Structure formats: structure tokens, C-alpha cells
Amino acid sequence: MKILDFFFRYTLGGVFLVFGINKFIPFIPSPPMLPQAARFIGSLMETGYLWQILGLMEIVGGLLIFSGRWTALGLLILAPIVVNIVSYLLILQSGIGFPPFVMSAFLSISGFYLAYRRKEFYTHLFRGFDFDSQG
């Protein structure tokens, strides 16, 4: 299990680190996109700030996942980004073929696995609040 945790931590952290840096210094060519997907990505880039914030959050989250000690926090930061990426790939890029499904499966499986292995860090987020207590 430690090997699987190590593998998912470094591959998921690496993916977010590389793609986060790519938002500032483009070195990965853009894959073919369907028209609606291209319009969506274009609108994110045209805002002038949202694309950079997304890249920064991906870099920070990827580094936190790499760290080992702060993996749970990195997963928490990247969770809404993963939901958006999976939605984008499955809804806007579904006509491209097989690669969007592979990336969606990888992001989902690795994120869920790493979060499950660190479930003790998340339990207090899902416990009910005790409003009857004083203080």
C-alpha cells in the first residue's frame, strides 16, 4: 500500500505541478479541442487573471501533495479543480475519443485513493457541530 500511495502521490503531484507551470510558461502543445472546449479555455485565458490563479493553485497543490506531510491539504485545495477538469473532459471533450476518459479516471482514482488513505484528516470536516455546548 505504501508503494501505491507513493506512486499516486508523485504522479498526481507531478501532473498538477507540470500543468500548473505550463499555464505560465507554455511548453506543452495544446491537444485538439472541440469548438465548445476551445471557447471555454479561451474565455479563462482572456480574463487576464483566472488562468494564472488556476495555475498557481495547481502548483501549490502539487507541491503539497509531493511533500507527504501536507498531502491532505493539497488534495483539499485541488478537489474543486479536479471536479472542474473531470467535468470539462467528460462533457466538453467527450467527442475527442479515449484520452479524456483515461485522464478523468486517473485524476478521480488517484485523488480518491489518496484522500481515503488520509481520511482521519477529513473526519472533523464531516462531523456535526454541537450547538448545545456552552463555550
Question: Could you please describe the fold and organization of this structure?
Answer:
By secondary structure, the chain is mainly alpha-helical. Helix content is 74%, strand content 0%. It is globular, with a radius of gyration of 17 Å. It starts with a helix and ends in a 9-residue tail after the last helix. The model has no long low-confidence stretch (mean pLDDT 91).
Category from helices, strands and their pairing:
mainly alpha
The helical percent reads: over 70%
First-residue to last-residue Cα separation: 42 Å
Strand content: under 5%
Q: Can you give keywords for this protein?
A:
single chain; 135 residues; mainly alpha; globular; DoxX; membrane
Topology overview:
Elements: H1 2-22, H2 35-46, H3 50-67, H4 71-92, H5 99-117, H6 119-126
Helix pairs in contact: 1-3, 1-5, 3-4, 4-5
Subcellular location: Membrane
Keywords: Membrane, Transmembrane, Transmembrane helix
Pfam family, one: DoxX
Structure at a glance:
The chain is 74% helix and 0% strand.
